[in-house]
Amino acid sequence: MFCDKDSALESPNESGERLLAEEEGALWTRNEASSTLRYNGFAAGLLQTTALLLFFLIGALFGLQWRGDMDSLCGAHTSQYSTFSREIGTKYNVKAFNGSLLKENTFRLNAGPEVDAAWESLGINYRSVRIPSEDAERSGLAADQVKISTKYGGGFPANVEGLHHLHCLNLLRQSLFYNYDYYHAKGEGPFVNDDYIVRHHVSHCLDIIRQQLMCTVDTGVLGQIWIYPDSPEPYVDFNTRHRCKNFEDVRGWAEKNQLPLDPPSDFLQPPVEGDRIYNEMP
Ligand SMILES: *[C@@H]1O[C@H](CO)[C@@H](O)[C@H](O)[C@H]1NC(C)=O
User: Fold this and answer.
1) How many other C-beta atoms lie within 10 A of the C-beta of residue 250?
2) Alpha carbon of 114 to ligand 1 centroid (Å)
3) Which of 100, 102, 115, 240 should be mutated for ligand 1, with most atoms under 8 A from CB?
4) What is the rounded CA–CA span in Å between residue 187 and residue 167?
5) CB-ligand 1 contact for 100 (6 Å cutoff)
6) Nearest Cα residue to atom 11 of ligand 1
7) CA neighbours within 13 Å on the CB side: how many for 37?
8) Closest ligand 1 atom, residue 239 Cα
9) Using CA atoms, how far apart are residues 90 and 69, in angstroms rounded to an integer?
10) 38-97 residue pLDDT tens
11) Model's pTM, two decimal places?
């Protein structure tokens, strides 16, 4: 049997005792050794401790210096490079989300000018920005993509992805069953198109947001709180804290760098021999 008392249990005990005895023996020998040996041991210990302390201090100093640069390090590691990264850069700040179920903020109001203005203020309808030629490759733009004529400063017209995501979320909001009639009747923005196109625009937006949320999946958790003191019930705490990127800096940069409102007809450089031209919308 495995649990046989005599063999399995007693033999480790015996060897354990033996080990202890050996250690005691070693201690005794050390204690009886000459004072020089003890002094040497003490000096070596002191040296070791000092070295460790020094390493720790150097590490701590490096750590403190790195902390300041951690934001750009993380931003550069997790986001596509763009001119924004070079000119402004990513910073992170802790924000409390508002996960209220019944208390509505302006972004949640029923269709109308007030809620539209709130969404508009996020920069969802900004015109393209210019990505200078020297940033194009690092920003993921191929040399044969659409370019601005050198006459007008050159570079590539482009839109900030995050603002497109918000544009998309706004279109989903406008297409909610209780908002749809209002925006359909107004016939502005995406609703100038046929219903068939609007439908595809909406599902394009839904799917872009799905992919973005999956790409940056939040691995934080929602805890629970007690509500109703008279007969307490558990309720999910949606008001969680998040480390957020500097959205306002992104919006401000995109606003400032918009291309002209009424560009001249030769603003874009026409494609040249060898540039890829697709047969249909990809
Ligand atoms: C969330 O927003 C609503 C509406 O602005 C406000 O009444 C509520 O206090 C906010 N909740 C939190 C936890 O910030």
Assistant:
1) 19
2) 18
3) 100
4) 16
5) yes
6) 98
7) 6
8) 13
9) 10
10) 667 788 888 888 889 998 888 777 777 766 677 877 878 888 888 999 999 999 999 999
11) 0.76
